[in-house]
């Protein structure tokens, strides 16, 4: 059996999601050797807030949002999702053996591709969880008919660069002064991956 085991449950219909764009994705469960990923729900508010209010977690991403901004974005991300949705598919990640919450990941449609993103609690960095979860997300994207993924990374965020490279992403382009963090503008990098059947 493959190390990457995937379970996708669609509550309505039996056709693949990319053939039935009207179907909401009510449940999305992805499973790897060590991790369990599921669609973020209203019960995950404290977890989402813990990630998005932690300045150290966000130091290479963006300024720490206000509580109101975090809540507004959370309420969008827990809405039903399908492959035509414009908002993020947000997945909550747990360590399988202990059940510990370790972070969140997800994807968002962008024209003919999809953007991927991820945040992990500091105590779960450098354990390979980012690579493992992104590989699962890639496989799920393929099952939806998505053939190209990209990641936006702030220049200097070497850990995220290594993570996406381990998952087959390659440097695509660099853009100057596109991300403002603590009043300072930073260059942004875009890494891309394309599925070649």
Tally of helical runs: 4
Radius of gyration: 16 Å
What fold name stands as the CATH topology?
A: Aminopeptidase
CATH architecture: 3-Layer(aba) Sandwich
Q: Which bin fits the share of residues in helices?
A: 10-25%
Strand elements, count: 9
Number of domains: 1
Query: CATH superfamily assignment?
Result: Gcn5-related N-acetyltransferase (GNAT)
What's the helix-strand series? EEEHHEEEHEHEE
Biggest sheet strand line-up: 1-2-3-4-5-6-7-9-8
* C-alpha geometry: globular
Specify the biggest β-sheet: 9 strands, mixed
Strand content: 25-35%
CATH C-level name: Alpha Beta
The structure class reads: alpha+beta
Mean pLDDT: 85
What's the helix and strand layout?
Blueprint: E1 5-7, E2 29-31, E3 35-39, H1 45-52, H2 67-77, E4 89-95, E5 101-110, E6 113-120, H3 129-143, E7 148-154, H4 158-166, E8 170-181, E9 184-194
Parallel strand pairs: 6-7
Antiparallel strand pairs: 1-2, 2-3, 3-4, 4-5, 5-6, 7-9, 8-9
Helix pairs in contact: 1-2
What can be said about this structure in brief?
This protein has a nine-stranded mixed β-sheet, sandwiched between helices. Helix content is 22%, strand content 34%.
């Amino acid at each position: 059996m493959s190390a990457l085991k995937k379970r996708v449950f669609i509550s309505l219909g039996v056709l693949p999601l990319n053939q039935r764009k009207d179907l909401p994705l009510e449940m999305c469960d992805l499973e790897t050797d060590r991790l369990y990923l599921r669609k973020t729900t209203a019960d995950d508010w404290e977890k989402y807030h813990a990630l998005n209010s932690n300045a150290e977690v966000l130091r290479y991403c963006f300024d720490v949002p206000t509580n109101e901004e975090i809540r507004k974005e959370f309420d969008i991300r827990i809405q039903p999702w399908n492959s035509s949705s414009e908002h993020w598919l947000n997945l909550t990640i747990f360590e399988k053996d202990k059940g510990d919450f370790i972070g969140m990941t997800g994807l968002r449609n962008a024209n003919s591709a999809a953007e991927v993103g991820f945040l992990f609690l500091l105590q779960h960095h450098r354990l390979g969880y980012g690579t493992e979860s992104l590989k699962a997300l890639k496989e799920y994207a393929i099952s939806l008919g998505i053939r190209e993924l990209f990641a936006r990374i702030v220049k200097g965020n070497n850990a995220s660069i290594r993570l996406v490279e381990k998952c087959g992403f390659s440097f695509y382009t660099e853009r100057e002064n596109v991300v403002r963090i603590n009043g300072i503008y930073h260059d942004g990098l875009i890494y891309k991956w394309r599925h070649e059947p």
